[in-house]
Design goal:
Number of domains: 1
Shape: globular
Bound molecules: NADP nicotinamide-adenine-dinucleotide phosphate
Mean pLDDT: 96
CATH architecture: 3-Layer(aba) Sandwich
Strand order of the largest sheet: 3-2-1-4-5-6-7
Helix content: 40-55%
CATH topology: Rossmann fold
Radius of gyration: 18 Å
Strand content: 15-25%
Order of helices and strands: EHEHEHEHEHHEHHE
Low-confidence stretches: none
Distance between the termini: 42 Å
Length: 260
């Protein structure tokens, strides 16, 4: 059976990278993206290729019959830009055919008072965290509908449900991601396409590296699990959601150590 293909946006580091590596361990063709960090993306690609080659070698040893390893494609582009997303999707079709799983992970935060935020900063948050979902779903869904299968997993945040002081734009964008997820799930359920979101709490990535030691301790003290989550824990949940369970759709699943 040909390998399935997954696209993970924002996979140069953090949660996106962990998700991409998780799928590579299971024989998927893995397409990775980021907007600026070309060197980091190349490193992710090299790690994926090493995992895929090792798996292929091991399978050849036991005579599985699969004659080529799953593939990897990396593509640098702003997922908030529809024209760039069209080029990305054209490359995916040329290389692997249709996309089976779309993981909308790319996202940015902005810390500060709303009154101090510029219109340009507002637009950048909304384009990156929300318009990217419109762009990639619009381009991906027709093939999924034609094939009567597919999974879309959006990476959201607990702030999308609760709202955070000094993160109004970020909270608004993630609240919209949640509504987008529920609405699209209803639209696509008749076509056997499941749409879910993972609402992360505090996950240990660069996004939280602005916190000093005292702030990090205060944050950890608020989390019943007593620690931040790991990117690998988020990746395991995303991978689970990508497996066969056609009745699980339209859900915003919290991953926050009991925090919210
Ligand atoms: P991260 O370490 O800062 O990584 C963000 C990734 O998104 C990078 O690969 C970055 O690429 C990419 N990206 C940013 N803007 C992009 C654009 N316009 N087009 C394409 N890629 C873009 O963040 P993270 O913590 O892994 O976060 C991943 C997702 O989880 C985000 O949606 C975030 O909101 C969500 N989340 C994170 C936490 C947390 O505590 N970490 C909590 C809740 C939700 P470059 O390297 O090129 O900039």
């Amino acid at each position: 059976m040909p390998a399935k293909t997954v696209l993970v946006t924002g996979a140069s580091r953090g949660i996106g990278k962990a998700i991409a590596l998780r799928f590579a361990k299971e024989d998927y063709n893995v397409v990775i993206n980021c907007v600026r960090s070309q060197t980091l993306l190349a490193e992710t690609e090299a790690e994926i290729r090493a995992i895929q080659s090792a798996r292929h070698g091991a399978k050849q040893g036991v005579g599985s019959g699969q004659d080529s390893p799953a593939g990897c494609l990396s593509f640098l582009c702003d997922v908030g830009d529809m024209a760039a997303c069209e080029k990305l999707m054209a490359q995916i079709r040329e290389r692997f055919g249709r996309l089976d799983i779309l993981v909308n992970n790319a996202g940015i935060s902005h810390i500060g008072l709303l009154q101090d935020m510029s219109p340009g900063e507002w637009d950048r948050i909304i384009r990156t965290n929300l318009t990217s979902l419109f762009n990639l779903c619009r381009l991906t869904v027709p093939d999924m509908v034609a094939g009567k299968s597919g999974k879309i997993i959006n990476i959201s945040s607990v702030w999308g449900q609760r709202g955070a002081s000094c993160e109004v734009a970020y909270s608004a964008s993630k609240g919209a991601v949640n509504a987008f997820t529920k609405a699209l799930a209803k639209e696509l359920a008749p076509s056997n396409i499941q749409v879910n979101a993972v609402a992360c709490g505090a996950i240990d990535t660069e996004m939280n590296h602005f916190l000093d030691a005292g702030e990090l301790q205060s944050l950890t003290d608020e989390i019943p699990a007593g620690r931040l989550g790991t990117p690998e824990e988020a990746a395991d949940l995303v991978f689970y959601l990508a497996q066969e369970n056609a009745y699980l759709t339209g859900q915003i699943i919290g991953l926050d150590g009991g925090w919210i």
